[in-house]
From TrEMBL:
Protein name (Swiss-Prot/TrEMBL): Transcriptional regulator, AraC family
Upper classification of the organism: Bacteria, Pseudomonadati, Pseudomonadota, Alphaproteobacteria, Sphingomonadales
Pfam families: HTH_18
MF annotations from Gene Ontology: DNA-binding transcription factor activity; sequence-specific DNA binding
Domain HTH araC/xylS-type: start-end pairs: 177-277
InterPro entries: HTH_AraC
Coiled coil: none
Length: 307
């Protein structure tokens, strides 16, 4: 793995669309191994002046996003942000609804190990948070990146170099690395049917597992296990357009009624309602991410960076 590799991808569709999305994924340098999902740059162009698109992100880990050009309107639950060049989101168990026009954007996704190395707050205190990153104490330390990442005159290479330099300066040593990686790996492996099984696999007491999960992952072990199961199902559905929910449903669900209940909890709507919606950004982005990065969603990324 190296710090100069990058992958580009453009979302494709069977018919011409009134917008174009291009996504480029950069591999974080080895010094950040296990900290980030990826660094990625997205360009969104519209055919019509004043055009905007609406979409929603699935539950994911914490992110910081820097917007050059337009700025999004975004909401998670009752929390909303508008007009911010720098948007911060905590780990989420709910969708992030957003509206955006033509834009250039940098996104940085933090794995749980990255959370502990770059943030001072417990992840649980920032769960389902969306905010103006420059104005929130958990995210304000990254605000200086706006000078370069939101500069329309700066090239992608210059912006990437500034991003790497800032992260190298801000990263700090931590104590719980091994525990975090064990829990994260066990969650992604999805081999455990109960919190007790997960704790055993991680060589922890249930109480210690609860503490580690709330502090670094943002949610209880039980909710994290349910979120993984749900995200495996949602990702399968999104990557196989035209498939049925019964085909995408994870094997760990007892029946379709249980899946529907959990879908409603995590996405605030029924599966049929979600399937009827357009996903102009998310569908293309997930396909591109799966093709060039190996997994379609942050929550499915393993605890170590790609090699």
């Amino acid at each position: 793995m190296g710090d100069e590799r990058h992958h580009s991808a453009v979302g494709a569709a069977s018919a011409p669309l009134p917008y174009r999305l291009a996504a480029e994924f950069r591999e974080p340098p080895i010094m950040f191994e296990g900290c980030f999902t990826s660094f990625y740059h997205v360009s969104l162009d519209m055919d019509q002046p004043g055009m905007v698109v609406h979409d929603q992100l699935q539950p994911e880990w914490a992110n910081i996003r820097f917007f050059c050009g337009g700025t999004p309107e975004a909401a998670i639950g009752e929390q909303r942000v508008t007009g911010a060049q720098f948007v911060g989101t905590g780990p989420s168990s709910l969708p992030c609804h957003f509206t955006i026009g033509p834009v250039r954007m940098w996104g940085i996704g933090f794995l749980p190990l990255g959370w502990t190395r770059f943030f001072g707050e417990d992840a649980g205190a920032c769960a389902n948070l969306v905010c103006d990153g420059a104005a929130h104490p958990a995210f304000a330390r990254f605000a200086g990146l706006s000078d370069t990442l939101c500069d329309p005159e700066a090239g992608i290479e210059e912006q990437y170099a500034a991003l790497v330099a800032a992260m190298a300066r801000l990263m700090r040593p931590t104590r719980d690395d091994a525990r975090i990686q064990r829990v994260h790996g066990a969650l992604v492996a999805s081999e455990h049917a109960s919190v007790h099984d997960l704790a055993d696999a991680c060589a922890m007491s249930i109480r210690t597992l609860e503490r580690v999960c709330m502090r670094y992952f943002g949610f209880s072990p039980k909710l994290l296990m349910r979120r993984q199961r749900f995200m495996r199902s949602l990702t399968s559905f999104m990557l196989h357009r035209g498939s049925r929910w019964t085909e995408a449903m994870d094997d760990h669900y007892h029946d379709q009624a249980q899946f529907t209940r959990e879908f409603r909890e995590f996405m605030t709507m029924n599966p049929s309602e979600y399937a009827a919606l357009d996903h102009p950004i998310l569908a293309s982005f997930m396909e591109a991410r799966a093709r060039v990065w190996g997994s379609a969603a942050q929550t499915l990324d393993p605890p170590l960076d790609h090699s």
